[in-house]
Amino acid sequence: MDSCTGYGFVNVFGTNESSKTKLDFRSKSKSICMNSQNNDPDQVHSISIVVPRSLTHHANHHVNSVKSDSSINTLSYVESVQSANDSENTQIHVGSAMVAVIGTLAAWTSLKLVNRVRRTRFVKKRTGKRDVAEKLHPKIAQFYDLRSAMWERVWGEHMHHGFYGLNESFDAYKNPQKAQIDMMHQLLSLGDIDALKSKDQLKILDVGCGIGGSVRFLATQLVNATVQGVTLSPEQVKRANEINASKNLNDRAHVSRGDAMELPFDDSTFDVVWSLESAEHFPDKFQFIREAFRVLKPGGTLLMAAWCHRSCPPALSVDDRYVLENVYEKYCVSHMCSLDEFKNYALRAKFRRIETADWTAAVKPFWRDVVKSAVSMKGVKELVSTGIPAIESALAMRHMIEGFNRNTIVFGVMTARKPYSHELEQEDRLLEALTCRSTEN
Predict the structure, then answer these.
(1) Are 254 and 244 in contact (CB under 8 A)?
(2) Torsion-angle region of residue 240: left (phi > 0), alpha (psi -120 to 50) or beta?
């Protein structure tokens, strides 16, 4: 408080008491006195205002209000700075994420490009290197001579896909050995089983029979049947007949060495020609179909299942061909054709009542089970003891899996009937009549 009675002192800003400014409100003239040691405004650090006590309260209230507003403004400024920093940090994080994403995409694109170049080169290198029968047959025989014993010890007597069901009956976790049995049941059901069972004597030829698993299955299911199997592998012939004898089936089940391109049997010998996953090895598919037609009796049935590639068009892509060429190389496959091509071959060979089906969905789980068996303790032991070629075949499973997942590989089945001669003659007359009518018009 100032020494003047009735006046209050308000220090507005600064703390330097050496210079003061006082406002005298005692007169209406509101005189202002500058009490400063010098007149330099830069040296004035505080202003003292002498006001009546009645105004002191209002002045202090105003100053507090100013300070409060200043505090709020300061807080707002700090918050705005913090917000700006947070925004800047967020932008930095977003920018880093963008860089990471772009880098990942660039790396992925580069890998795809490198992979495409590698696959293209591999396909070009393999194109045109399809072996003729004379060169391929020894390779197929050696392929199965080396691996059949290993497969039997791991999987048993059947060397083909399992059938896991279609649509409502699909069971992805079916026992794989049961699935293999079901495959043979399904293929046999496509033929007229009742008509086959009604025959006094039934003769069946299994082309590409392996160690005779399906030979014995057919002999067991059709007790009126004599089943003959053929394979290129001498080791398979030996083992198949050993098992036949052990199961007392050697009087109705027999396996010999034979070539599907030139079957060692007379014309019109068999009631059924059966081929379960062997036609993919045949270097000339059409020749096999013609041979099947030749050895079948009139009214006889062809039942076959084979690895195929998808229908064309569209043409097979580089990725499609890369998968197929690897399968050809590692599994000693000549080449695959589409299911439509098999049907065309059957028509050209004069088969009739031709039916085809795509069972790809029913066999896909099989390769999961094959992988499991390969990585099991028993599977690894067998692969190592068999040698590098067997290990390479096991590693090639990834190509089969990719082929099925890409729909490049199709598991196709076909049934066809050999017509009687009079049926073909009647068909020829109808075609001749249609041709003449077309010419007249």
Answers:
(1) yes
(2) alpha
Q: How far apart are CA 132 and CA 125, in angstroms?
A: 17
Task: Tell me the CA distances in angstroms from 225 to 136, 292, 295, 341, 355, one per residue in order.
Answer: 32, 18, 16, 31, 24
pLDDT digits (tens, 9 = 90+) for 293-312: 999 999 999 999 999 999 99
Residue 384's SS3 state is helix
How many CB atoms are closer than 10 A to CB 7? Answer: 20
CA distances to 320, 368, 419 from 362, rounded to whole Å, are 21, 13, 31
| CA–CA distance, 307 with 279 (Å, rounded to integer) | 8
Q: If we measure between CA atoms, which residue out of 333, 266, 324 comes closest to residue 294?
A: 266
User: How far apart are alpha carbons 366 and 211 in whole angstroms?
Assistant: 20
Q: Residue for token digits 């009956």?
A: 169
Residue with tokens 């002999």: 219
| C-alpha to C-alpha distance for 112 and 118, rounded to whole angstroms | 10
Which of 326-364 are b and which e, b meaning 16 or more Cβ less than 10 Å from the residue's Cβ? bbbebbbbbbbbbbebbbebbeebebeebebbbbbebbb
- How far is Cα 361 from Cα 182, in angstroms, rounded to an integer? 15
In percent, the amount of the chain with pLDDT more than 90 equals 62
Where does the pLDDT of residue 40 fall: very low under 50, low under 70, confident under 90, or very high at 90 and above?
very low
**Is residue 26 very low, low, confident or very high in pLDDT (cuts 50, 70, 90)?**
very low
Query: For residues 107 and 85, what is the distance between their CA atoms, to the nearest angstrom?
Result: 33
Lowest mean pLDDT among 42-51, 266-275, 366-375: 42-51
Residue, of 134 and 440, whose pLDDT is higher: 134
Q: Does pLDDT of 108 surpass 90?
A: no
Query: Is the Cα dihedral 85, 91, 93, 96 positive or negative?
Result: negative
State the Cα–Cα distance between residues 74 and 118, nearest whole angstrom: 65
Bridge partners of residue 308, in order along the sequence: 410
Task: Judge whether 214 and 246 are in contact, CB under 8 Å.
Answer: no
Q: Are 181 and 207 in contact (CB under 8 A)?
A: no
Using CA atoms, how far residue 68 sits from 58, 61, 75, 98, in Å, is 15, 10, 10, 44
Tens-digit pLDDT profile for residues 367-402: 999 999 999 999 999 999 999 999 999 999 999 999
Most confident of the ranges 15-29, 166-180, 184-198: 166-180
Strand, helix or coil at 166?
coil
